[in-house]
Amino acid sequence: MEGWTIEQLEGKDVFVIEGQVAIPNNYSAGIVGSRFLVELRDNCRIMGIRCPKCDRCYVPPKSTCMECFGQLTEFVEVGKSGTLLTFTVDHHTTPVQTASPPNVYGIIKLDGADTGLLHLIGEVDGKAVKSGMRLEAVFNEERRGSILDIKYFRPAEAG
Amino acid sequence: MANRVAIVAVAQTRYHPNREDVNEGELAYEAIAQVIGETGLDFSEDGGIGLAITSSDDYWDGRTISNNIVQAAVGAHMSDEGKVCEDGLNAIYSAYTRIVSGRQDLVIVCSHMKESQADKSMVENLTMDPMFLRPFGIDYLTASALQARCYMEKYGITSEQCAKVAVKNRGNARNNPFAQEPLAITVDDVLNSEVMADPIRLLDSKPVSDGACAMILASEERARKLTAKPIWILGVSNCYEAHYLGERDLAACDALSTAAQKAYRMADIKDPVREIQVAEICEEFSYQELLWYAGLGLCGAGEGGRLIDSGVTQMGGSLAVNPSGGMLSGVPNIVGGMSRAAEIVLQLRGEAAARQVEGPRIGLAHGYTGMCGQLQCVMVLGN
Q: How do the domains of chain A map onto residue ranges?
């Protein structure tokens, strides 16, 4: 095979083998995450978890406070409404999208929470979405224990 | 500090949208062969390179243990080896600690990435929390758009100011022979390009890119024998913050601020704007360069727009940022931070040719890993 160089290949006989990494995974939502999902599914309630030391309420809840490293156990129900912190009207197309673009995503600070929840925004034209607007959760009729049991957040009615 | 550590040789491939002609090992070897050739070193037990540290990503490469294909190419056969599944600046940091500790006196590092091999959105979605983020089918572009709006609205940063970054960096890339996408574009070109995820447009974003970067790090004793122009690592630090976007202040970059302050303290830098003459920073999207300016202490919070307007960070300004063209001109993820450090080494050696900044003594390299810069790494280098 003397002189079999990349230059001589000229790109003609370069083999590209198609494949994919496809490994089914079973992720545990954990003790805290499971409680959150059960409350969403069964009661349409959005649960946060409070760190008594830092007086900080995380939504979604987590097991460990990132500020003080303490274990968190104190669940609190937060509001189904909140304030939009930031958003994007997303136009690009990808293979992982769950719906055809444009999709509107936002981070919503629910009443009583100290962190923002990332979710979809619906029932509103992208051009009318503004940071600071009030939004409320719309739940799916059929719920299965998923963050998508909340269908999306829509503009809240005044008052 | 007992041991000083120098970078004694650097090399990069030319960055390219699709290097389907080579596999990852062959791509890495293009850069590795240059630094081996330049120093004349080998991997012998008697005075050779004792350790190879690479950075790459399993999901991008489509194989768990992404470093196994580069084993021979990086000289790791029957040798000490390590892999950092993070931005390449962290691989340099890891090599640095091995030399500072006295365990090694010569380490070769290499970052390699073929973004063209996988779908960017799928890989990025898989980095996300499977309960609360992944089900939305989002990628880093969507996440970055949320960060961009948060930052821009809080501080009144305009789309024009972001576009200036894209114009500056792609323009600078015209002086860089390794650059993938040197472009003479205008602010209007950026503002008229397709909206990807509002407020981020196509020309605010970096293209898909393949490439590799390699360097050799040495203890002071070995460095002085290997080169007349060793470039010293004066300070380095990294810092990690929350994964979940709603737990962060997206208009700030607290992890970067912390990493930068620690690196500056180590390098005895008190006033980075006056003491640093050239910076190479990772910006997958144009707004990030403005946000990172403040995180790096080059301006106050929210003053990134004013800094780009002032011209200080242009070529010819007192603190040129990304003379190479940065990542916006086409550098792969993972390779980003190592290639930034390689560019700073060339600048401090006076070997940056057409993109050379005049007589720099102190340079700054930055790299990040993860959604909206979750892990930040900062390195201060001097000649």
A: 30-155
